[in-house]
């Protein structure tokens, strides 16, 4: 079986460039910044170039949401694959500590507010939440936690992750890295129990 991905076409590369630009505009100023005009200005091209690859703004927004989710999933999987950390430390790397993680969380927050009124984005949001819980649960099972216990702990940990991260986006001075790690470690350690929390993975 050939696992080598086929080369991307020029159109695929251009679409990816537009989406990457849209993701940056989103972080800088919110969903309102994602317009064909702003994208063309940032990319130094005409709006015709953008409209050649995307039917409308809604399509750009949806693809940008999927791009942000995929980027975050890759970071999540990398953190949970680090076998040099304890279970708690591996999971806490999902917090908005690095610039890249803060950008992802900021992008999500913009999308989540829009998802309240957009069924398509709401469906993407639900999938993202589900996948995060399931990935953490799979990780916990991989280090020896039983099935039901792993599922319950994963849900509790995900709840804490989202709650703490959103607070940190709004008050970065209060929620510095030390506080982020401290509060999340306390919640995660409680959900895992002392033996599992200290386990080296």
Automatic annotation (TrEMBL):
Keyword Transcription regulation: yes
Pfam families per UniProt: TetR_C_6, TetR_N
Annotated ranges, domain HTH tetR-type: 12-72
Presence of the UniProt keyword Transcription in the record: yes
Protein's name in the database: AcrR family transcriptional regulator
Coiled-coil spans in chain: none
PANTHER family, A to Z: HTH-TYPE TRANSCRIPTIONAL REGULATOR RUTR (PTHR30055), TETR-FAMILY TRANSCRIPTIONAL REGULATOR (PTHR30055:SF148)
InterPro entries for the chain: BetI_C, Homeodomain-like_sf, HTH-type_TetR-like_transc_reg, HTH_TetR, Tet_transcr_reg_TetR-rel_C_sf
Entry GO MF terms: DNA-binding transcription factor activity; transcription cis-regulatory region binding
UniProt DNA-binding residue ranges: 35-54
Key words, A-Z: DNA-binding, Repressor, Transcription, Transcription regulation
């Amino acid at each position: 079986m050939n696992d080598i991905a086929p080369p991307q076409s020029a159109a695929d590369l251009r679409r990816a460039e537009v989406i990457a630009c849209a993701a940056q505009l989103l972080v800088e100023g919110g969903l309102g910044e994602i317009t064909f005009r702003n994208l063309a200005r940032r990319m130094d091209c005409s709006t015709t170039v953008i409209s050649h690859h995307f039917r409308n703004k809604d399509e750009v927004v949806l693809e940008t949401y999927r791009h942000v989710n995929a980027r975050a999933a890759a970071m999540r999987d990398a953190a949970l694959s680090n076998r040099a950390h304890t279970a708690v430390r591996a999971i806490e790397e999902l917090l908005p500590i690095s610039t890249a993680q803060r950008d992802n969380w900021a992008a999500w927050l913009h999308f989540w507010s829009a998802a309240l009124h957009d069924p398509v984005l709401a469906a993407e949001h639900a999938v993202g939440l589900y996948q995060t819980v399931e990935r953490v649960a799979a990780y916990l099972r991989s280090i020896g936690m039983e099935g039901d216990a792993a599922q319950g702990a994963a849900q509790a940990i995900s709840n804490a992750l989202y709650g703490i991260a959103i607070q940190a986006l709004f008050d970065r001075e209060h929620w510095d890295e030390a506080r982020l790690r401290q509060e999340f470690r306390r919640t995660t350690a409680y959900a895992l129990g002392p033996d599992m929390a200290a386990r080296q993975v």
